[in-house]
Each structure stands twice: as C-alpha cells, then as structure tokens.
Amino acid sequence: MEETRLCSWTVVRSIFAIFQWWSFNVAVIIMNKWIFQKLDFKFPLTVSCVHFICSSIGAYVMIKVLKVKPLISVEPEDRWRRIFPMSFVFCINIVLGNVSLRYIPVSFMQTIKSFTPATTVILQWMVWRKYFDWRIWASLVPIVGGILLTSVTELSFNVFGFCAALFGCLATSTKTILAESLLHGYKFDSINTVYYMAPFATMILAVPALLLEGTGVLEWIQTSPDLMSSFIIIIGSGVTAFCLNFSIFYVIHSTTAVTFNVAGNLKVAFAVAFSWMIFKNPISPMNAFGCAITLVGCTFYGYVRHRLANQLPGTPRTPRTPRSRLEMTPLVIDKIDDKV
Fold first, then answer.
1. What are phi and psi of 218, to 5 degrees?
2. Residues 128-158: pLDDT tens digits?
3. pLDDT in tens, 49-71
4. Which one of 36, 90, 96, 251 is at 20 to 30 Å from 333 when CA atoms are compared?
C-alpha cells in the first residue's frame, strides 16, 4: 500500500514538473514574440539584456537569500578562464534566438532549433574528430530531412531570421561541447549555471545593446501608447525566463531521462501549436508535416543515445556515449542553455 502511494505521488510530481516546465517555456516564447510583434519593441539585444539582469537577480535570491540550492564554489581564476568563455557563447546563443524570433514565426524558429543535435554531432566529428556509432548518424536523417522540408515550405520565410536561428544552433552546440572541457570538475545545476553566467552575459551585452539599440529604445519610449503595461510585459518576460531555468532544475530531478526526452519534444509541438493559435501565422500542410518529421527524428535520436548509454557491460561504447542524465537527453531540448 505504501509503495503504491509512493509510486502515485512520483507520477503526480513528474506530471506537475513537466506541466510547469511546458508552461514557463511557452510563456517565455510567446511573451518574446508578443514584445517584438505586438508591442513593436524590435530590440532583441535589449530584451536579452533584460532577461540576463532578471536571471542574475533571481539566481542570487535563490542561492544567497532563500538558499534553495547551495552555491558551487568556483575559483576566481576559473571564473575568467572557464566561465567567461562559456558566458560569451551563451550570450550569443540567447541573442541569436531572440533575433530569429524577431523575424520568423515561433513554429519555424522552434523547428530550426531542433537541428541542434545534428550540428553538435557534425561539429564534434569535424573539429574534435569524435567517432559516433552509425545509429547516431542514422537518427539524424529524419531531423535534417524535416528541417529541409520545413524551410522549403515555410510561408513566412525570412533569410535573416533563418540564419540567426541556424547560427543559434551552432552556438548551442559549441557551448555544449565547450562545457565538457571548460566546466570539467564542476557539477553545475541550472540555478548555479545562471548564477555565474548571467552576470557575465549582462556585462558582455550591455554595451552593444546601448550602442546599437539605445536611440531606438528612447524613441520607442516616447511614442509608445501604453508605456507602463509594455514595461510590465518586458520585465515579466525576464522574470518568466528565470522561472523557466528553475523549472528545468525541478523537472530534471522529478523525471527519468527518457521521460525528459519525450516531454522535451512534445514541448516543442505544444509551443508551436499554442503560438499558432495566438499569432495565426500561416502554416501549410507540408510545413506541418516537416515539423512533425523533425520532432519524431529528435525523439528517435534521444532514444538511440539512451540505448547506447545503457549497453551491457563489455559492449563496445562509442567515445561520446552519454553517461549522465543530462547528457542522455537530446540536445534539442536545450536542457539549461538558452532559456535565460
């Protein structure tokens, strides 16, 4: 009886964790798109900077004030030698994601982000000479095919937005690969990651945002019809972005790797459907079919990596077989990388 009750509570907790993760993720995406499209606040660098500031404050409160998570100590030398380069790539990744949202629909942007597993494998193979099992390569075929079909049939295609999303995938892959060497020896959770990286990212982005968008922001402030509600939405998107980081920490500790994998890909489908209901961007049947192929491919990719990670002892492994729960998940979920 006690075991049944414990099992039921575990299921309920997992469902709740996934639901709140989905909710925060969709809220961040929709709010950012709303800021660019409905509020006519066309300044992705400034929006990203607001997110970094809110996340820096939120992480400080969670760790130093509320003590939700213990602070992982990092040597001052390592902060500049390891954390800063990671923060730089992290900053580029977030900015490119917001730039792509400025120019292309949420559905198209989310589908392109699903290309991240392919860019990660290709970069590791070409630059770092990593070997991958043939099943990994085979699992990438539907992802690449789905992306190509979606791009060709996208009715709201924008070259600049497409390139920003694609280079965002490369930035995500680069950050993930660099993390293996630069953060070796540090077991960061999502809150500690934000605690160290968000202040650096704010410092990196503040000057470019001021120089490139400062004049435009001032003009927008002077012409905005409802300034107070607009500010609330912009700041709210930053607060929600931090809450998303905290929700990722909760869902990782409440679900298995396989559940996290499947839920992550369903999250993308949920975000696409919800954004379509709000913004009504045109989606052709072939475009939707390409998006579905991509998500199925991402799920298959995660399944293959999970199977390779759990081979019987003595079975040959590929050099990059993931061993931790986070590594077993498909990188398309963006684990804790591009949510700030």
1. -65, -40
2. 888 888 989 998 999 999 999 999 999 899 9
3. 999 999 999 999 999 999 988 99
4. 36
Q: Which of 339, 305, 337 minimizes the C-alpha distance to 323? A: 305
Tokens matching residue 89: 């790539």
Q: Whose CA is closest to 79, among 182, 223, 2? A: 182
For 110, the enclosing helix (H) or strand (E) is helix 106-113
Q: Copy the structure tokens of residue 19.
A: 């639901």
B/e letters for 53-70, b = 16+ CB within 10 Å, e = fewer, are bbbbebbbebbeeeeebe
The C-alpha atoms of residue 189 and residue 122 are separated, in whole angstroms, by 26
Cβ neighbours of residue 201 under 8 Å, at least 6 residues apart? 52, 87, 88, 90, 91, 94, 340
Q: How many residues are there in the chain?
A: 340
Q: Please give the Cα distance from 312 to 322 (Å, whole number).
A: 14
What integer pLDDT is reported at residue 144 of this predicted model? 92
Q: CA-to-CA distance for 150 and 296, rounded, in angstroms?
A: 14
Residue type for position 8: S
With contact defined as beta carbons under 8 Å apart, do 163 and 171 qualify? no
CA distances (Å), 162 to each of 121, 146, 313, 317, in order? 21, 15, 43, 36
Contact at 8 Å (CB) between 237 and 35?
A: yes
Q: List the structure tokens of 190.
A: 């999502």
DSSP 98: H
Nearest to 240, CA basis, from 100, 172, 340: 340
With a cut of 60, say whether residue 317 has pLDDT above it.
no
Q: Are 328 and 309 in contact (CB under 8 A)?
A: yes
Quick one: CA dihedral 93, 94, 96, 101, positive or negative? Answer: positive
Helix/strand number for the chain, H first, E second: 13, 0
- Amino acid identity, position 311: Q
Give me 325's structure tokens: 């729960």
Q: Rounded distance, CA 87 to CA 73, Å? A: 17
Positive or negative: CA dihedral 31, 33, 39, 42: positive
**Are the beta carbons of 155 and 109 closer than 8 angstroms?**
no
